[in-house]
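User: Hi! I have a protein structure encoded as tokens and I'd like to know what sequence might fold into it. I'm fairly new to this, so please keep things simple.
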């Protein structure tokens, strides 16, 4: 029987890649002082209404009624949950608050490259700092994640934009034309901008007319100097300062005026990390500032910025850039009894090696050394020893590197060091 469409089974070779990705993520975020947290996978559906994009809530969530007739949703993202948790204990927490989690999520969408229905995701959030220092740090954390995965500087690009620049720019265009740009229309129009790449020019213009009405839509669509207007806004000055600080840290970025990100809760700086390889040229992950979200769950707002990176995207990146050849099983050594009567010898030798910190699998089932070697190769175990009476009496073994078939004689107690070279 096949598994449910859009979810994955993790065989050991898949799980070791997953573990590598998670370890790289943890090293990156913990080096900046972020602490791991988690929450239930089940949330009241109301948590996501008006706080996530309409597309996610209405079309992509796994939502059902529980036995108490309450609407429950399998979490499609982490940010609303984290904001709820901060609001619940706002006065007890120490700021700046640096949290991260690596957990699984569910979205009902069409499975394709880079997208599945169940996925794992790194979420990183910094609370309590309203100035650009927080923006700079979170973007630097995202860049560090890429480095820990093994990426070089030319393998990816970081695109930046600012939601406030869009709001201020479009408001200024409306004002110059004697019009108002209501907040609800602004939110709807920004959601439309997020889908612009998927629409034809005609469809985009028709949708703009429907959302904004004719006078406002024409004013926006016919303005040819939007970028010049944006550069005069106060939000643009903050944006430039952020870029300057990142540049001083050696983190190269690119201003992408077309990028808006679809969630309604974004309020300021937003960013996305793009793969530059032609085989996988796409946005991999991103995030941004969401200063008002915590306030929707409590009485006071808390400034916040964060990002999320999915495991599927991370694995696609590793495959595309051929960065997985060094990912091996946690088992370093396969020790095979030379004959069936040598099983006790091999088991005792394995116990000694485990006491020295080496992960060892003892061969079973097979009676021929050649069959043991083939089993070790299939399992991806890098080193091999055949162990019998001679090895037990001499205290030395022949250590075989299976990838190169190189053999060398070493004392049993030196095997852990030899396997680590």
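Assistant: Happy to help. Inverse folding works backwards from shape to sequence: for each of the 421 positions I chose a residue that suits the local structure. Here it is:
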């Amino acid at each position: 029987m096949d598994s449910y469409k859009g979810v994955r089974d993790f065989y050991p070779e898949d799980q070791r890649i997953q573990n590598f990705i998670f370890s790289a993520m943890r090293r990156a975020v913990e080096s900046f002082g972020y602490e791991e947290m988690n929450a239930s996978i089940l949330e009241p559906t109301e948590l996501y209404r008006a706080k996530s994009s309409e597309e996610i809530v209405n079309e992509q969530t796994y939502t059902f009624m529980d036995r108490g007739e309450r609407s429950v949703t399998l979490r499609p993202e982490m940010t609303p949950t984290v904001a709820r948790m901060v609001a619940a204990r706002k006065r007890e927490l120490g700021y700046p608050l640096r949290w991260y989690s690596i957990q699984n999520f569910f979205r009902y969408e069409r499975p394709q490259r880079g997208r599945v229905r169940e996925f794992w995701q790194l979420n990183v959030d910094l609370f309590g700092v309203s100035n650009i220092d927080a923006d700079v740090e979170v973007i630097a954390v995202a860049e560090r994640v890429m480095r820990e995965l093994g990426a070089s500087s030319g393998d990816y690009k970081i695109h930046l934009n600012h939601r406030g620049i869009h709001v201020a720019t479009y408001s200024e265009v409306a004002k110059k034309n004697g019009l108002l740009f209501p907040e609800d229309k602004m939110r709807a129009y920004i959601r439309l901008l997020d889908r612009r790449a998927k629409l034809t020019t005609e469809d985009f213009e028709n949708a703009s007319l429907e959302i904004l009405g004719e006078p406002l839509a024409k004013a926006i669509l016919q303005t040819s100097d939007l970028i010049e207007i944006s550069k005069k806004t106060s939000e643009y000055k903050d944006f430039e300062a952020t870029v300057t600080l990142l540049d001083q840290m050696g983190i190269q970025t690119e201003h992408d005026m077309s990028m808006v990100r679809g969630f309604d809760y974004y309020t300021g700086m937003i960013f996305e990390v793009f793969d530059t390889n032609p085989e996988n040229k796409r946005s991999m992950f991103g995030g941004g500032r969401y200063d008002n979200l915590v306030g929707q769950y409590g009485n006071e707002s808390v400034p916040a910025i964060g990002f999320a990176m999915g495991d599927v995207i991370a694995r696609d990146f590793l495959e595309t850039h051929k960065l997985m050849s060094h990912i091996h099983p946690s088992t370093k050594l396969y020790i095979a009894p030379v004959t069936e009567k040598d099983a006790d010898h091999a088991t005792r030798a394995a116990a000694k090696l485990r006491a020295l910190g080496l992960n060892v699998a003892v061969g079973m089932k097979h009676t021929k050394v050649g069959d043991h070697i083939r089993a070790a190769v299939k399992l991806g175990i890098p080193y091999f020893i055949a162990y019998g009476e001679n090895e037990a009496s001499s205290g030395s073994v022949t250590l075989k590197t299976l990838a190169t078939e190189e053999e060398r004689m070493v004392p049993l107690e030196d095997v852990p060091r030899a396997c680590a070279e």
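A useful reference point when you look it over: The chain has a mean pLDDT of 90. Feel free to ask if any position seems puzzling.
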